[in-house]
């Protein structure tokens, strides 16, 4: 879920060092949701977001420092939930919640961090051992497995439900699929400076991961049983530029700022076997500003204004509510 300028600026970080999303029911306290939320900090660069079901809370991760903020949908300002740098977490990119666990992609750290949403306690650190990657986004399967993209290294990771429920803190982050010899072609820097595997979701039947390749302007279907990889037929459309992905009721929601600094959300209707997708609608503007991804909040989307592509970001950094 990271696009232009990322490889260059992430290089500085290294030297220094959007699943199937079911509808989120409105909480009893969530009767007056806010339309715009402020993320504190002039260098926050909020990248990932997740809405916690059954609560008024949502979480946002900071790409450049690793801070994780928590917001309430009825309050206009987020607060620090986990300070940046804890446990070696110098970057917080894509994130999802599974059974009270906040699963956070750690960017150039090569790690995935897992925390309790109730206490903030560190539960797990999954380490790929790689120092040349960008662990970017997370999707949770119906069986509890987590799938994780790496935008620089041509692999898809998987963390099993058993690993997530174990008491062992330090564990390896293992490759599920290597993309060598598949239709997925990782490029070191053509259109989007080498940002390849990006947002992803898991289909509700658990059979497939749907993954965005931002650099190639493509979507792929990956079998969770076989690891087989097939391109999704977009009917000749080549300007999706998918970054963050969401999936609900057969519609794939693609969030991007590629070609659209004002932000674009594309709604794509998927075929029953997820091999084809047709663009049905596009949403632009509405307070978006170089967005990266989004989370469902009822019938709305909470969209993160990442602004990493902008040399002079508009402050304060924000999350905006987009009505569908």
Automatic annotation (TrEMBL):
What broad taxonomic lineage does this protein's source fall under? Bacteria, Bacillati, Actinomycetota, Actinomycetes, Micromonosporales
The residues the entry assigns to the signal sequence are: 1-28
Q: Has UniProt tagged this entry with the keyword Signal?
A: yes
Tell me the Gene3D superfamilies matching this sequence. YVTN repeat-like/Quinoprotein amine dehydrogenase
Q: Which InterPro entries match?
A: Sensory_adhesion_molecule, WD40/YVTN_repeat-like_dom_sf
Q: Source organism's superkingdom? A: Bacteria
Record protein name field: Sugar lactone lactonase YvrE
**Organism for this UniProt entry:** Pseudosporangium ferrugineum
Arranged from A to Z, the UniProt key words for this protein are: Signal
Q: Keyword Signal: yes or no?
A: yes
């Amino acid at each position: 879920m990271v696009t232009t300028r990322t490889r260059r600026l992430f290089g500085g970080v290294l030297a220094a060092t959007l699943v199937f999303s079911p509808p989120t029911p409105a909480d009893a306290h969530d009767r007056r949701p806010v339309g715009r939320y402020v993320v504190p900090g002039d260098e926050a660069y909020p990248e990932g977001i997740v809405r916690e079901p059954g609560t008024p809370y949502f979480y946002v991760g900071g790409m450049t420092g690793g801070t994780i903020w928590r917001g309430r949908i009825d309050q206009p300002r987020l607060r620090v939930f986990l300070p940046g740098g804890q446990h070696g977490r110098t970057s917080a990119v894509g994130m999802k919640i599974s059974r009270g666990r906040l699963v956070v992609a750690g960017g150039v750290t090569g790690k995935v961090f897992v925390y309790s949403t109730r206490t903030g306690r560190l539960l797990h650190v999954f380490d790929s051992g790689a120092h040349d990657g960008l662990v970017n986004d997370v999707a949770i399967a119906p069986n509890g497995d987590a799938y994780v993209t790496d935008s620089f290294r041509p692999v898809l990771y998987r963390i099993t439900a058993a690993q997530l429920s174990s008491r062992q803190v330090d564990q390896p982050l293992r490759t599920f699929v290597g993309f060598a010899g598949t239709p997925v072609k990782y490029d070191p820097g053509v259109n989007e400076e080498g940002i390849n595997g990006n947002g992803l979701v898991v289909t509700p039947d658990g059979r497939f991961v749907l993954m965005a390749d931002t650099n190639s302007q493509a979507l792929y279907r990956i079998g969770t049983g076989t690891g087989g990889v097939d391109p999704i037929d977009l009917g000749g459309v080549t300007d999706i530029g998918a970054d963050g992905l969401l999936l609900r009721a057969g519609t794939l929601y693609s969030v991007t700022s590629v070609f659209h600094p004002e932000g674009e959300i594309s709604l794509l209707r998927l075929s029953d076997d997820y091999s084809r997708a047709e663009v049905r609608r596009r949403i632009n503007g509405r307070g978006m500003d170089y967005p990266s991804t989004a989370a469902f909040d009822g019938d709305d989307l909470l969209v993160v204004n990442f602004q990493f592509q902008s040399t002079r970001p508009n402050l304060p950094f924000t999350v905006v509510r987009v009505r569908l």
